[in-house]
Automatic annotation (TrEMBL):
The keyword NAD does not apply. This is Putative acetyltransferase. It comes from the Bacteria. It comes from Marinilactibacillus piezotolerans. SUPFAM superfamilies: Acyl-CoA N-acyltransferases (Nat) (SSF55729). Signal peptide: none annotated. The lineage of its organism: Bacteria, Bacillati, Bacillota, Bacilli, Lactobacillales.
């Protein structure tokens, strides 16, 4: 079940913040773990300013997608629930609400690039993320 939220409860915020941290550390192994830990609190605060699509299974949050205007800030799926089409379901829900979408993906995150390409996104430009100094694609 997907639940679109403008305001998160304290428990929802705690849960998705934890998922955000775990997924970033695991998937973006090419970026120092300390980077994600350093930005944890500021990201947690910014989640309250985003539109969040929660994916719940049996009442439990398994994944989420964060939107800021028409920008997909990320799709984060708890590793125990991956490979079940949850990311695609979240993206399908967002596509119903937004006429156009933008996002950025690290070049080294090949799995995410392949996912977004399969969902109809195209790479418009390649740039360097000023925070991590990693190359990324925007589309």
């Amino acid at each position: 079940m997907i639940d679109k939220k403008q305001e998160l409860t304290v428990n929802e915020l705690e849960t998705i913040s934890k998922i955000w941290m775990e997924v970033n550390i695991e998937i973006h192994h090419f970026i120092k773990e300390s980077y994600w830990k350093e930005y944890y609190e500021s990201v947690k605060e910014s989640l309250n300013d985003a539109t969040i699509y929660l994916y719940k299974q049996d009442g439990r949050i398994c994944a989420f997608l964060g939107m800021v205007d028409c920008y997909i800030a990320g799709i984060f799926v708890d590793k125990r629930f991956r490979k079940n089409g949850i990311g695609k379901e979240l993206l399908t829900a967002v596509k119903k609400d937004y006429e156009s979408l933008e996002l950025s993906v690290y070049v080294k995150n090949v799995q995410a690039i392949n996912f977004y390409l399969a969902q109809g996104f195209t790479c418009i430009k390649k740039q360097v993320d000023s925070e991590t100094l990693e190359k990324e694609y925007s589309g």
